[in-house]
Amino acid sequence: MTNRELDGLDRRILYHLQLEARHTSSSDIAEALDVSASTIRNRIQRLEADGVIRGYHADVDYETAGYQLFTLIVCTAPIPKREALAEAAADVDGVVEVQEVMTGEANVLVRAVGVDGDDLSRIGEELDELGLKVSDEDLIRNTHHSSYSRFGASDES
Question: CA 75 to CA 94: how far, in whole Å?
Fold first, then answer.
């Protein structure tokens, strides 16, 4: 995948989709940006095809869904194995997100959900068995998202 230069319209489309993709139609975005709905649909398809838009995801409230423990597990992986270990960690039952960090010892961040402490202990043990060194675990109370503000700018900079 190559990097793609985004123009002002592409950035503003991304801004609107990040606000609320599920309840935002091409027509809604077209009206807000004063362009045709077909232009918006074509741009979105191209952003998807180019890998700029990788998907649309549900924002799950795990506590309401019965998984009262949502945790951030901070791990360390040897640099040459970081990517492979992060990919393997994503397959552990209960893990919902894994992020690779470029520098430092805390270079793999794992978000996991569970119903109780035993669930989280099992996840930690499985991560350890993969070769990740767990250095910290933090319970997450809430996660807040926002659109990247520079996508909302109307200028070309």
Answer: 16
